[in-house]
# Entry
Amino acid sequence: GKRSLRQKIVDELRHYSNGFHLLWIDTKVAARMLWRLLHGQVLTRRERRRLLRTCADLFRLVPFLVFVIVPFMEFLLPVFLKIFPEMLPSTFETESKKEEKQKKRLNAKLELAKFLQETIAEMAKRNKADTG
# Structure
């Protein structure tokens, strides 16, 4: 059924609270990785990507905080997210947005695979024609 206005507000506050909590955890992990990096240890590819993602999230947090701190500005957040879709830190994304991004990436990979298959088939036809 429909949710009440109070329930929508509570859900939205819980979403932001969880996002900040996840960002705090990511920041602590990234600080440990940075400490290891500064002391000469080599990071794995996964750790490097996580460190970069966390740093990017921290830079994205600055404009996002303006929307959270300024009263009634959170009503403009959906408009700005339509204009700048990557403005929101990754810990604040909903599952539907993550699935949408994965579908877009998968479609792009499928298109690329189809193109490569067609190219290989074309090259095979040419080679058969040249040798035949």
